[in-house]
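Sat 14:20. Reprocessing the chain from the morning session after the first attempt stalled halfway. Input below, unchanged.
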Amino acid sequence: MTKARPALRLSAAVGAIGIALFSASSAMAQDAPDPAAPAAEADDRNGDIVVTGTRIRSAGLASTSPINTVDAEQIQLLRAVTIEDFSTKLPQLAGGVNSTSVGSDAFGAQTLDLRSLGQNRTLVLINGTRAVPFSFRNAVDVNAIPAPLLKRVDVLTGGAAAVYGADAVAGVVNFIINDDIRGLQASGNYRAVSDGASQASVYVSGGLDLGGRGSIVAYFEYTDRDPLLAGERLETRTGPATAPIGGNFRDVASGRTFSFDAAGNFTLTPQTTDYTSQFLLVQPLERINASAFFKYDLTDAIQAYGRFLYSGVDTRGGTRTGQNPATIGGAGVNVQIAQNNPFLTPQIRSQLTFVNGFATVNVQRSLGELGTTAAINDRDTWQGQIGLRGDLTPAIRWDAYYQIGETRENITVVGDGLRASFAGLVNTTDIFGPGGDFTSVLRDFDYGSRVRRQQVGSAYVSGDTGDFFNGWAGPFGFTAGYEYRHEKGRFSYSPDLSQSFNQGAESAPPVPPFIRVHELFGELVVPLLRDFPLVKSLTVEGAYRRSWYTRSVGEDRSYDTDKLGLNWVVSDDLRLRGTRQTVIRDANIGEFANPVFSIPFSSLVTVARLFPRYGGDPCALGTGNVEQCTRQGYRGPYDSRAAANLTGGYFFGGNANIRAETGRTYTVGGVLTPRFLPGLSLAVDYYSISIRDAVGQIQPVDALTSCYITDPSADNPLCQAVSRDPVTGFLRDAFVDDRNLARIKQQGVDVDFRYALALPASLPGRQLAFGYQANFVTSYSIQRNAALTPVNCKGSYGARCSSDLVTLVSPDYRHRATVTWDAKPLTVQFGWKRIGEVRDSTVGSTDTIDAFDYFDLNVAIRPPTTGLTITIGVDNLFDKRPPTPRNAGAFNTYPDTYDILGRTVGGSLTLTL
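Finished this time. Tokens:
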């Protein structure tokens, strides 16, 4: 991270807080109105409500899709400044990218992954419209969304492509902003973590009434997070070794070999060095978020509205090829050692053959003296929106908006060096043993820059026919509209990356990639029955969307998606609902336009986050079919997990011929709110998601397992995904470009139970509330190729059952249960998060990870001082350590799912005026 920019951001943050506190003091002196009484929402001035899952705004309308909601009170109790602070507790959301995703191109982002189906199949909305992605694979960094301004978060399951468009395959997460805040709020938040990863945040927000015609709400936040090294946790401090810091040497003429260990001792035994303890386990981060939301009545019939969000993030993380120091690995490099080299001991001289004063020596060595390598990322994301809306009639409204957003990031690789410079210093620097001065080869590399821009424009009318037509059971609800979306990207990579020790050359697409989409959409809600026995109301809902896609490469395509839904209100106690929807997801920029990149195949055994992609050569491990091994060119035993034996490349990139994913989803469920038991609600919903032509990659672990173990046939197409060296028979190259796989299917049940009980005067406190949210997966399968048998992935872990190689654990059960005692001014909540038992998806393995239970305790105190709230909390109350299975992911565990921080203690102080 650059020094100037963090300093500027810190100064801005301190200044903003100072202004906030000064303004707060002034507001107190002027006896400002009570902010606890928000103004009526403009959207609700006619009694309308906004429902996630539909654009129809009509009184009394309820969603036919299952929705789980997190409200503002719960978000505040969890001391949430960013979305990551509470989203990791929701049972519908899988791991996704988070602060532990060191080495991915997310660089400090938090992404959402509904039901382990992939972050690119989860659509993120802000107030019902698209958030701007930061990545070329359409992932959104939700930590740019201001958590303290949230009114609620709706998590919708079952797809919503007909309503919101592509990407809403697994579902939608809709962040609803409270734009009716009045007054000022300032807060400080600190989370203490042992040995690193502690985080401090401050924010200030304020809302201003605009003369009774509207309002503006603004927010500013500064967050700073410390690094956490893998060596600070017992479970993560060791990993695969690389070329030694002391060096392995071979006299080319004679073939004699010798080495130096980490203590500088001469030895004839080859050495390695494990640098894992020096790797970043949690990325340090510095972030500034700023946002503003406004609405204003231009006339009595027309309202202007909009938003602006900015997020600036500086992080230090791993590079694409990992965090090892600059390394001369693989086959090593031949250098000329002079006979008069001053660093040659008698032991070394006895091993070398000098011809004309020089010995040719092959060197394998890591330059650990320079420290580990890292990628410094500077990312700025912004989005602006402006819109107009109004009433055509008392029951029909119109809405039109335009929004544009952009992510721009610059990446610098530090700790690496110029590979060509090494040969020139071997006679002036002691390369034999640790401790040499290699600073002359040290160099920072401009990795490059990436720009991602999204534009969306939409106009629609919605409402009901109540002004001019009432059906036999009530007015019909409807929406009709048009949407335009334009997405484009620009890659710019430095050509000198190939001159470094560890980095590979990158290339940009020959044609700047773009996607243009034109869409027509409509919805219709028809009441069928009303006020009959066992039918208080019965409505049927339909939606349809026609989409036309144009891409920078590939054919133009068009798609249709639709939705049918049923809402049956049996009584005030019971409501039943169901949907059937078709969904599509066309390839994103990363999938169809990325050029083919490559990193050394050996990175799959030296870079922690890549470990799940390769488990070794089945032929060398003795698990492969002998006839198939011979047929495919295997020559004999070798160590297939030794980096020195994996000399080929790992090639990955986009594919212009990718087709769109298509799918169908079903949901059936009900909501029980019995009047005889006030305060109780129970929602139970079944869902079924089936995706055809799912876009993904066939990793070496999958291809090798299929080719040599589960389907050892001569014509197995997956055998071509990993090649062999024709001379040695060793595995050489892996080809994992994006492609259409066969099918992904998942079925399950969501349960949402809430019960709030008023306590009698004889007991302390005002209310006792119970909450239970759970996800049961009843079946889950992934079919990588139409010729292959689907893999049962229900309750599993490992790359074989990952849809996107980000989330690697797919439990068949998750829940969060809470007990909340409210005594006003004191609120205490005890939370319990459970991750069910999972089994290893590796063929032949019987290993399991037991169910994991995490507990948290949060206390909110509202002292007599007006507007002051103090919250204190402990996460992972009993300091549960992560599992360390044999077939683990990054850092010997699965940090996307299991807590690696240990017990954390946090607190916040919030002043509202």
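DSSP finds ten helices and 45 strands in the chain.
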